[in-house]
Amino acid sequence: MTPPQLARRMSDIQPFHVMELLRRARELEAAGRDIIHMEVGEPDFPTPQPIIDAASRFIAGGDVHYTASLGQPRLREAISSFYRTQFNAEVPPERIIITAGASGALMLALAATTDPGDEWLLPDPGYPSNRHLVRAFEGVATSLPVDAATRYQPTPEQIDTAWGPRSRGLMVASPSNPTGTLLTGAELVALHRSTTAHGGLLLVDEIYQGLTYGVDSSTALAQAELAEANNVFVVNSFSKYFGMTGWRLGWMVAPQAYVREIEKLAQHFFISASTPAQHAALAAFEPATLEILEARRLEFGRRRDALVPALRELGFNIATEPQGAFYIYADVSALTSDSEQLARRLIEEAGVAATPGLDFGHHRPRQHLRIAYTTRSERLLEAVARMRTVL
């Protein structure tokens, strides 16, 4: 067979290990094994019923056509209102762009700002798709090693040291994947001032916004300095907090000067985000939906509170407890020298699927596992019991 004639950029794109792990889990399940899923970052709760009902009513009406490339105006206004009522942040709807998931927002932001050879600084460990999307647009993803000493978040001093002549911007996440740590408002301002001093951009990933424990949920846009800046992009999603992973809907808040250029890209990349999904998402901000989501947030918190001490008893070193998202990033170096090998043993011998640190960067990945508490508490504790038989 003739090998495919791939673009050079494909040599830098690596598989998403967690999806490979999920495929193996599905194979074992098909063979009759009971697998406890702690690998994929997908809530186990269904989409809230008010959202499903809104979609059903809209589809039944038959008016399922393209929407504007920037998004359905009512949804952009609803998101603007959500920022105002929940976070006291003034975000004009004209700056809100509805996208095909948060990944679609990242693609648009990078396509609009990144020339071949431009460099983006990214915390390591961090969400793997970010660095691969940078590479897909022929940029350079430069890792900033972070650890528990800074709660796995970058510092202005790191930015100043790492910034080079081709640096374009800094990408951060709060809450973060895989560590579940947050940036405070003051820390975001400090990072923004550092990137601004170098003439760069700041992109803040807030797709786990709303899923916080023991601290209030917030947004970078609650900081007036960031909300009014001409170099700050904020990406969000309906997937995690709102429980709409399969609907593939997200949004981006862009500086006004970029909106028209991003609109042109959206016209060619996607035409528009899913029309039924956009109309369904209008119900995400209704009081009945928000009540459901708050109950789920509290349940995630209870799961975290049960799982962290149980894992510590097994020898997992959790130096920084997660304040958000639904992940625990655990140092397993006391148990193994290779977390990928341990992950394979856990799924094959114990029927427990967890993600090795290799997915999240180059900084001590083989010493870490990411564990998602996205299944019922009793199943999480059963997983711990199964792990004990392997460790």
Automatic annotation (TrEMBL):
One of its GO terms (biological process) is amino acid metabolic process. Belongs to the class-I pyridoxal-phosphate-dependent aminotransferase family. It is an enzyme of class 2 (transferase). Its cofactor is pyridoxal 5'-phosphate. Its EC number is 2.6.1.-. SUPFAM superfamilies: PLP-dependent transferases. Residues 34-386 form the Aminotransferase class I/classII large domain. It comes from the Bacteria. This is Aminotransferase. The keyword Cell inner membrane does not apply. Keywords: Aminotransferase, Pyridoxal phosphate, Transferase. One of its GO terms (molecular function) is transaminase activity. It holds the Pfam family Aminotran_1_2.
